[in-house]
Write a sequence for this structure.
């Protein structure tokens, strides 16, 4: 069996080829070591086979999750192919880069071989892997957007599956940086460039203040404040909550926490302290 240095295991390890997908995998941890090997596979070795069970219900599930038995290769090959296909379909629908889709496939391969998500469907695992890859690489895709292309998989299901994968595979966790989503959120709410710039600067200033709310909650409160200072009809709080995927109660609580620092957060060039202090409670 061929060997290669695995960047994850940091050792010379035996490799297994997924003939259908054309991927070469580390036999220890499941990391995709090389992609698109189809041209190198001898003719007749890439027959599809047929396994209809979800990835988490493959045979020999009682074996250690940290080891891979080459005899299971056919089962892994078929379930991996289905997952890779689903990731490609969802990624294309969202207009994601090849880098993000490839990373999602790497995570899926580890999940598939190590049987990390027993009892979950291929669609939910593929969606969760894509969600993790987006956050790792810095694509500002929300659970709503991924759920919309995940063939009926709910946001709650995707989130729970991604948390299980992160815990078992120890993939990097992330913090949502509001700036990634500001322009898209503000555009959906009809804000002009000057107001968007004020939101971006306010979000950056807020990072230096000890506000114990999630970044998205703080951003929602900032957008609310900036909208109140616009020379235009205010956008209803429920619309802000819908666009940012938070609750109206969350916006009200976040505003209460950040309002004491409003004059430090809202840029001086956008509004004076007197106007900032007059912003009404949501």
């Amino acid at each position: 069996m061929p060997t290669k240095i695995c960047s994850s295991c940091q050792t010379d390890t035996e490799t297994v080829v997924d003939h259908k997908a054309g991927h070469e995998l580390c036999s220890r941890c499941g990391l995709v070591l090389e992609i698109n090997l189809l041209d190198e596979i001898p003719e007749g070795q890439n027959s599809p086979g047929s396994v209809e069970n979800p990835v988490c219900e493959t045979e020999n599930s009682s074996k250690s999750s940290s080891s891979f038995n080459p005899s299971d290769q056919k089962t892994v090959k078929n379930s991996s192919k289905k997952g890779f296909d689903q990731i490609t379909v969802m990624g294309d629908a969202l207009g994601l880069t090849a880098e993000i889709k490839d990373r999602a496939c790497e995570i899926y391969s580890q999940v598939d071989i190590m049987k990390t998500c027993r009892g979950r469907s291929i669609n939910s695992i593929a969606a969760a892997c894509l969600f993790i890859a987006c956050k790792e690489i810095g694509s500002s895709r929300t659970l709503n957007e991924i759920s919309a292309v995940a063939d009926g998989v709910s946001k709650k299901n995707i989130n729970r599956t991604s948390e299980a994968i992160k815990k078992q595979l120890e993939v990097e966790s992330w913090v949502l940086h509001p700036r990634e989503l500001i322009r898209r959120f503000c555009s959906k709410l009809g804000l002009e460039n000057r107001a968007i710039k004020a939101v971006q600067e306010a979000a950056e200033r807020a990072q230096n203040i000890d506000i114990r709310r999630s970044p998205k909650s703080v951003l929602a409160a900032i957008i609310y404040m900036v909208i109140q200072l616009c020379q235009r009809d205010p956008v209803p709080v429920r619309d802000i909550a819908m666009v940012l995927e938070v609750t109206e109660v969350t916006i009200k609580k976040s505003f209460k926490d950040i309002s004491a620092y409003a004059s430090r957060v809202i840029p001086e060039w956008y509004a004076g302290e007197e106007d900032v202090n007059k912003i009404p409670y949501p």
About this structure: The beta strands are 3-6, 11-18, 23-26, 32-34. The radius of gyration is 23 Å. The first helix runs from residue 73 to 94.
